[in-house]
């Protein structure tokens, strides 16, 4: 789950009951890697994510003052835990990257888990791979406990490991990305993205995401006509369910298509509000 939304940026020291320890590297590749994660109330997910990052030289967690055991769990796993109020995904991740001691940074979300095969592939990189500015991983969506093998949300490549001397995180509040100068290599193995574990969790995030997307749309002057809004539902459902083959993902694929369709409709409505 991603952080809640705040309006200002404040760095504060860790609470006294949180022990901050440096992660012990186990099997680092030819270049030392700093893993960075932003968190807010991730106690149900974070251990699985951290377990696949123990090969990193360090793990930095920037937490938005979680009210659960997220910070405690991260500290117990050897992470460096920092606290910062949330002012957008891009800004929060930019701060996390700036705290890394190494130029090579692995930026993952708290609900993204590297597979054993991907970890082995990363730690097997050679000196020749230093020619690349970054490495992209293939992502498979896991929605309501089901791994999607079809659809646009699975099989896409996302840049996650990069040399910060060649670029960095964009400042977008939502749908942030990584912009680099230089070549990027695609690795073979996957990351599993445990995006939503329940419908309740999806709907809880839904209003926040559509609000931020609408704010960005308004700033860019992307107002939608009545015709576009009316067509949004049938067009997007056809796209997600049939054209992107989520129909092959069973009932969960149908749920995903309906929710994704409704996301666009609500976003457009909020832009015109």
Q: What attributes does this structure have?
A:
single chain, 273 residues, Spore Coat Polysaccharide Biosynthesis Protein SpsA, Chain A, ten-stranded mixed sheet, two-stranded antiparallel sheet, 24% strand, globular, disordered N terminus
Question: Summary?
Answer:
With 273 residues, the protein is α/β, with parallel strands linked by helices. It contains 7 helices and 12 strands.
Q: Find the CATH topology of the largest domain.
A: Spore Coat Polysaccharide Biosynthesis Protein SpsA, Chain A
Based on secondary structure, the structural category is alpha/beta
Oligomer: single chain
For the sheet with most strands, the description reads: 10 strands, mixed
Work out the count of structural domains: 2
- Gross morphology: globular
| Helix percentage range | 25-40%
Mean pLDDT over the full residue set: 87
The termini sit apart by: 27 Å
- The CATH architecture of the largest domain: Alpha-Beta Complex
Query: How many beta-strand segments?
Result: 12
Query: CATH superfamily of the largest domain, please?
Result: Spore Coat Polysaccharide Biosynthesis Protein SpsA, Chain A
Residue share in β-strands? 15-25%
Low-confidence stretches: 1-25
Radius of gyration: 19 Å
């Amino acid at each position: 789950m991603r952080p809640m939304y705040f309006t200002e940026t404040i760095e504060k020291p860790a609470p006294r009951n949180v022990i901050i320890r440096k992660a012990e590297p186990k099997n680092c590749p030819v270049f030392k890697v700093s893993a960075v994660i932003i968190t807010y109330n991730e106690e149900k997910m974070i251990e699985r994510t951290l377990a696949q990052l123990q090969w990193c030289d360090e793990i930095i967690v920037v937490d938005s003052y979680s009210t659960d055991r997220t910070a405690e769990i991260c500290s117990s796993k050897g992470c460096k835990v920092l606290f910062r109020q949330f002012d957008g995904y891009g800004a929060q991740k930019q701060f996390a990257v700036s705290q890394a001691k190494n130029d090579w940074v692995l930026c993952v979300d708290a609900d993204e888990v590297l597979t054993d095969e991907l970890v082995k592939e990363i730690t097997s990189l050679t000196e020749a791979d230093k020619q690349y500015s970054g490495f992209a991983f293939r992502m498979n969506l896991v929605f309501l406990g089901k791994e999607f093998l079809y659809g646009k949300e699975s099989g896409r490549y996302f840049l996650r490991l990069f040399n910060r001397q060649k670029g960095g995180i964009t400042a977008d509040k939502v749908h942030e990305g990584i912009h680099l100068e230089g070549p990027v290599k695609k690795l073979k193995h996957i990351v599993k993205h445990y995006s939503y574990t329940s419908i309740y969790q999806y709907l809880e995030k839904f209003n926040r995401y559509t609000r931020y997307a609408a704010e960005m749309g308004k700033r860019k002057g992307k107002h939608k006509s009545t015709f576009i809004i009316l067509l949004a539902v049938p067009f997007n459902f056809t796209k997600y369910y049939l054209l992107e083959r989520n129909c092959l993902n069973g009932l969960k694929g149908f749920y995903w298509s309906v929710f994704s369709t409704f996301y666009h409709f609500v976003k457009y409505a909020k832009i015109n509000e």
